[in-house]
Fold:
Amino acid sequence: MKVVPVSAVALALTAGVPVLAGLEGWWRFVDEGPVSSDLSGNGRDVSVDTNRVARLSNAPGGGAVWFDGMTNAAVVSDGYAYVQAEGFENAAIPGPFTVSGWIYADEPSMFAPILFRTADPDEWSDGFGVFVDEGSSVGAFVRNGGVECSICGGALYADMWNHVALTYTGSEVSLYVNGLPVAHGDVPEAESFDVRAPLEVGTLVGTDLSIPYSGAIADVRFWSHALSAQDIDGVYRQFLADAVDEYGDDDCDGMDNAWEIRHGLNPKCGEDASRDEDGDGLSNL
Structure:
């Protein structure tokens, strides 16, 4: 796994970024040992099985949990999630919500869990899930018995960090990759997708099925309301410089990553090269 180093640009981006209201949990995985502190102040710390999961420091937000295929194969026999916030079992969040995180997938997978909260680990008939789907796209679902909304879209960049976010407004479900909307679905009527279950990170464990993730996950957050597209873009940009090589050009649009970040562009979206943000008659490129 290649992890890009934290650049000097990151220091400028992390300063002065507000913590959005309704933050129910925030884990940057910067701690050492079997516990990652909840930076939201709600005390919902994450337990980390350090015998199965490694820690990384060169990651968005300064820390990450890394699951590799060799150790994750043991999840089938172990029968428990290696990284989870047990405090969510008693968290009542009956309305809209947002969940987000940075992911680095080591290799394509037919299915790999990223973030799950479900009380039914076999059928996933309730709660929500965000996962890597077939073809290295991102998928998500919200379910409450017979009410279901599943969406999928947004190809992940290979061998680099990608930011993913899922929002539920009460009637709509949206999926974002690298700050951009990639999929949308309508819920027939306002439903609660609240469950009394922990938030599982990178591991989905059930009595009949145990599925591991291969890669790293960083800067996981959960809000008790639906963030706007602008808010999600702001969350994405907060640690963006940690996720790219500042001298590289991730979207191959002819503009260096660091230059795009400094000028408010998206280094993972080549479409902004032809636009003219400052209105001077010349393209950004």
